[in-house]
Amino acid sequence: xxxxxxxxxxxxxxxxxxxxxxxxxxxxxxxxxxxxxxxxxxxxxxxxxxxxxxxxxxxxxxxxxxxxxxxxxxxxxxxxxxxxxxxxxxxxxxxxxxxxxxxxxxxxxxxxxxxxxxxxxxxxxxxxxxxxxxxxxxxxxxxxxxxxxxxxxxxxxxxxxxxxxxxxxxxxxxxxxxxxxxxxxxxxxxxxxxxxxxxxxxxxxxxxxxxxxxxxxxxxxxxxxxxxxxxxxxxxxxxxxxxxxxxxxxxxxxxxxxxxxxxxxxxxxxxxxxxxxxxxxxxxxxxxxxxxxxxxxxxxxxxxxxxxxxxxxxxxxxxxxxxxxxxxxxxxxxxxxxxxxxxxxxxxxxxxxxxxxxxxxxxxxxxxxx
Length: 370
Fold this sequence. Notes:
39% of the residues are buried. The chain is built from 16 helices and four strands. The chain has a domain at 16-268. The strands form two sheets. The protein has a two-stranded antiparallel sheet with strand order 1-4. By secondary structure, the chain is mainly alpha-helical.
């Protein structure tokens, strides 16, 4: 895997194939509706790239990435609602349930520049503070997973309990425009898909560069033996926090693009269940690989959409069963399937191979003179 990552021509060829599939093949073969669904899956794949970096390479079981996905999504949704209301206007849902006008913390999001900067900086700040607070105390493993999951639950409860500011349990929806472009125009919706595809390719390139760098080796070393890294003079807390911040920014950007593509964001998109769903996609695809999390997240999201239409109550059980099967029998995900099949074939060949003939007994050579 490392040799493939470091091969410049293989990586360049892979990016060219990915770009052709996303920018040429998909728009030519898919309808506008299916292209929008694929754009939604690409947003999940952006979150998966970050989870693969933090969990697969850094060993941090991030079960609360829905928080950062939700931060980016809600910040973008606030900007779109204010843009639809016009200069000084009040979003429609606020006018229906409150007469207090726009809250003060909403006002800065009238600016597109402030919104775009906040989508990157705010999740990075939250993840940085949380990472330093936990990793410096050497909190890891199951404890970190529970902490991140509790953060996702608290964030969803906060959104539901503030209907005048976040739309409550129904969330924010009914967007009409995106940075001055009408969302009802099919051309603009296709442009959003291209933006999501380009953002995903950039994130994969960033993740690949981090994996093959000196920092990537340090991150893997922190995962395998944190005490040895500390003994060598490095600070594992800083190494892990940087990966956690990178994953948070990727999740936030994915959430920000999710809103204009899908047209709605609610607490159901940011709580514990969607966070675990993203984790399942990464586990199935192969968390330690570069493309495994991307393909796993897209496959699980596609299966969820398809099977939810035919067996809506059974998809959750199928998702859980897939996760258990992969963890029990294929810990490296589907990306490791080729290696597992190769090992089984070698074992089978060794058993079928006839035993080597026994060596002939050595005859003592007589020595002359006695």
